[in-house]
């Protein structure tokens, strides 16, 4: 016998005690099934799968809409179709957790990377490298101009190298750039791991400040001297976390650009959650592509960020705010630099809070 059969219906809801008519299948107050039938194993299993399928249907509808109809989910959710789709914040939170897990699963083992990037130096090799450093330092401190130094280095086959150690005075005199500073910190630590931060900074000619000490400690963790590549990878991994924390602030950007009395901040926030859900799901896919092939990863991400993501962003704005094509294009152009500006502001605020708290 089915629990929904009329003969099992009561006149009072067993959940909230609201008075019911026997014609009512569900309680009009809380929505529970109007049934007095005792729960059986079959009923229990059917109820479980019914609830699971209901959520699964909303999840499926949400994912399909996000990928095929940019901006429509957010608009329809705001218009009241909230039983059709999964809650945008709940979906965004779930996808964010999965994304952070995939970063941990696909991240290369740091120990293995260090083993490949760094081999133990013999005493003879260490002496030879230190000798080369001395030659480079002597040339750099000779007082010659940058052009003459470059010419001398070419003629003597000595080149500026990220595998060498340069002091602050040398770095300032030839403007080698931040990557040589970071590489010098890393190289100094690799050759003299027993020396303290204060000693290292003093010998390198840097002030013993909080910023320099923090930089030195971070550089100790670098896997190679390919500084730019490692920084890009680092910020790529941290970008989703930064967006996750900054989303309420980033939503102000949409609220300002698309200001309207008929739309409040929360409705803009729903749009932000759905848009960045698509962005996070895309990164999850790219992370798994990267495990399969690094070349395929680079190709697909290049196409995605250059063509697909801007087009998807435009279509999302067009479908959600429903403004004319040219107004949407104008605001799309305005939003792109604003997004990075807001993201940088959020990053600086979080860095400042991090320094204060830790």
Summary keywords:
358 residues; 14 helices; 70% helix; elongated
Short characterization:
By secondary structure, the chain is mainly α. The protein is 70% helix and 0% strand.
Oligomer: single chain
Please state roughly what percent of the residues sit in beta strands, choosing from under 5%, 5-15%, 15-25%, 25-35%, 35-45% or over 45%.
under 5%
**Mean pLDDT across residues:** 78
Largest sheet: none
| Helical fraction | over 70%
Number of domains: 3
As a whole number of angstroms, the C-alpha radius of gyration is 30 Å
What is the count of helical runs?
Answer: 14
Q: How many beta strands in the DSSP annotation? A: 0
The low-pLDDT segments are 109-121, 153-158
Structural class by helix and strand composition: mainly alpha
Global geometry: elongated
End-to-end separation in angstroms reads 63 Å
What is the H-and-E element order? HHHHHHHHHHHHHH
Explain what the structure shows.
With 358 residues, this protein is mostly helical. The protein folds into three domains: 38 residues; 152 residues, no CATH class; 104 residues, no CATH class. Helices cover 70% and strands 0% of the residues. The longest helix is centred in the last third of the chain and has 33 residues.
